Amino acid sequence: MRLSTVILPIHRWAEGQKTWRRAEELGFHTAYTYDHLSWRTFRDGPWFGALPTLTAAATVTDRLRLGTLVTSVKPFSPIAAPTGKTPSLRIGHAWSAGSGRI
């Protein structure tokens, strides 16, 4: 049986990277995140974009499959969607779309 988990994009990267690494250490097959503009409970805190979050997660994991459960494309233009309109996670690594991680 393969188990997956959901990690909300609510933590700044210094804390968030620990969560993604831990999911891999626990043996999860896949970790997903949401791409909503906000979540009612977390409305007053940070909510980072799914694509920057998954890109950052790819830099700190090796085997964990990554993905979104929901991708909100309606509020973004096709050009702005990949770049995101949320605050940067400020990681120090580049990620190539050709790596097949997402």
Describe the overall structure.
The protein has a three-stranded parallel beta sheet, covered by helices on one side. It is of the alpha/beta class and 102 residues long. Strand 1, helix 1 and strand 2 form a beta-alpha-beta unit. It has one domain. Helices cover 27% and strands 16% of the residues. The radius of gyration is 13 Å and the shape is globular. Helix 1 crosses helix 2.
Q: What is the mean pLDDT?
A: 77
Question: What percent of residues adopt helix (DSSP H or I)?
Answer: 25-40%
Strand order of the largest sheet: 1-2-3
Distance between the termini: 21 Å
List keywords for this structure.
about 100 residues; alpha/beta; 3 helices; 3 strands
Task: Spell out the blueprint of helices and strands.
Blueprint: E1 4-6, H1 13-25, E2 30-35, H2 50-60, E3 65-71, H3 80-83
Parallel strand pairs: 1-2, 2-3
Question: In summary, what is this structure?
Answer:
It is built from three helices and three strands, in the order E-H-E-H-E-H.
